[in-house]
Automatic annotation (TrEMBL):
Origin species: Sinorhizobium glycinis
Name this polypeptide is given: LysR family transcriptional regulator
Gene Ontology molecular function: any one: DNA-binding transcription factor activity
Highest taxon in the source lineage: Bacteria
Presence of the UniProt keyword Metal-binding in the record: no
Length: 298
């Protein structure tokens, strides 16, 4: 039997879009087809498989059990085809789209991405940042750097860096109170974002069970990297991931008064869809970043 008869590829593409978007209408908009045409292509696939793939409800379609088993395999197949064609064309214009937390992007990735460019000059990098967890099946991103516990269904995850934190401040600010000698001395200074849940965790680990942070003026700067800048400027004590600020400590801009680090069970991870695990550009970045960070026993 000819493959075109056995595998209706165009109908499979329509099925992949409808399954990913959860809508025949949205699938049609993405593919430039009418909803009627989408429904027809889905019907062809269902006749070919011999089972319904969607439950049709008013204004909503959901995958059946058979559809749920088929969808990830079809997505993986199209991803592999796309990568194979790009490789055959020598497509150097295909970019690696990275979504990252703002802090990891500014404090580590931006400072080191040049070595990746040198090793892989044919891979263009496109970086976007936010602290929200995006859906890699819906958003324009190939991989993501996330802060969490690594339990994201459907994604391959590699630990990159421990999410440890400790108080840091400028040396000049510490001198205003005669130095920071014990954890309670920090409470004599302005705490940057006292509502940050990291603070009570660290104080508890330091043996201070009643830091009384609730009554302090609240300030949220949106990302750790901005809090670090405020600390460098002497605006208060920030609780930071020290691995990101070794340069600032070496230059005397930041001071870490205690060796004690705390962790809330979350770390920095590299993640990407299981279906894309063999994409050459993803493999290249994965191997590079793991080698650069060498997380060891994380």
């Amino acid at each position: 039997m000819k493959m075109s008869k056995q595998f209706p590829l165009n109908a499979l593409r329509v099925f992949e879009a409808a399954a990913r978007l959860g809508s025949f209408t949205k699938a049609g908009e993405e593919l430039g087809m009418t909803q009627t045409a989408v429904s027809y292509q889905i019907k062809l696939i269902e006749e070919n498989v011999g089972e319904p793939l969607f439950l049709r409800r008013p204004r909503q379609v959901t995958l059946t059990e058979v559809g749920q088993r088929l969808a990830p395999k079809v997505t993986e197949a199209f991803e592999l085809l796309q990568d194979a064609v790009s490789s055959a064309r020598g497509d150097i214009g295909a970019a690696l789209r990275i979504h990252s937390t703002a802090t990891f992007a500014s404090q580590w990735l931006a400072r080191n991405i040049g070595t990746f460019h040198l090793a892989h000059p044919n891979i263009a990098v496109r970086l976007s940042t936010s602290d929200k967890i995006i859906d890699l099946a819906q958003e324009a991103a190939d991989i993501a750097i996330r802060y969490g516990k690594g339990d994201w269904p459907g994604l391959v995850g590699h630990p990159l860096m421990r999410g440890e934190f400790t108080p840091m401040l400028s040396p000049a600010l510490a001198e205003t109170i005669g130095g920071v000698h014990e954890p309670r001395d920090l409470l004599k200074l302005r705490i940057i974002d006292p509502n940050d849940p990291w603070w009570p965790l660290w104080f508890r680990a330091a043996g201070v069970d009643d830091p009384d942070l609730a009554g302090r003026p609240a300030s949220r700067l949106g990302a750790q990297t901005f809090e670090a800048r405020a600390a460098v400027a002497g605006q208060g004590v920030a609780i930071l991931t020290p691995a990101f600020y070794a340069d600032e400590v070496a230059l005397g801009r930041l001071y870490q008064p205690f060796d004690l680090h705390a962790n809330d069970g979350r770390d920095y991870w590299l993640v990407y869809p299981h279906a894309r695990r063999n994409a050459p550009k993803i493999r290249a970045f994965r191997d590079w970043v793991l080698r650069e960070l060498n997380p060891g026993g994380l």
